[in-house]
Amino acid sequence: MPINIRLLKCQVAREETGLEIEIVNFFRFEEQFFYYDPAEVAFHSFLFFYLCRPQTLEIRPDHEINDDSVELPRWIKVDGLENQHFHNHGHLILEALHQSAENV
Fold first, then answer.
1. Which of 12, 48, 55, 100 is deepest in the core (most CB within 10 A)?
2. Bridge partners, residue 34, by sequence
3. Is the torsion defined by CA of 66, 69, 72, 73 positive or negative?
């Protein structure tokens, strides 16, 4: 049975944040190699970036987030965001935000 990637991405967003999203379009693909020191493991990842639009605005309550490896989801103002505010790939995310603002 084929996997519906769009539905899977929407499901992950809902599980991790509580938000229902609409995938607007594919933005970019990146390949990454990195070493994670705490686990002493090397990774090869394929990253797919999508522009999405929230269909709901209520974020899942903190006590329902069961992922200790991420910060709790929060709404923030994007006007002052800079590359260093992101753990990885900030320049790509800022580029996507800039492009989506131009298309509004």
1. 100
2. 43
3. negative
- Helices then strands (H, E): number in the chain? 2, 2
> How open is the CA angle 52-60-16, to the nearest 5 degrees?
55
| Tens-place pLDDT, residues 6-61 | 888 889 888 888 899 999 888 889 899 988 888 899 999 998 888 889 999 998 88
DSSP category for residue 52: E
Taking CA 73 as the corner, what is the angle to CA 11 and CA 63, rounded to the nearest 5 degrees?
90
Element (H, E) at 35: strand 21-36
d(CA 63, CA 72): 10
29 neighbors 46 (Cβ within 8 angstroms): yes
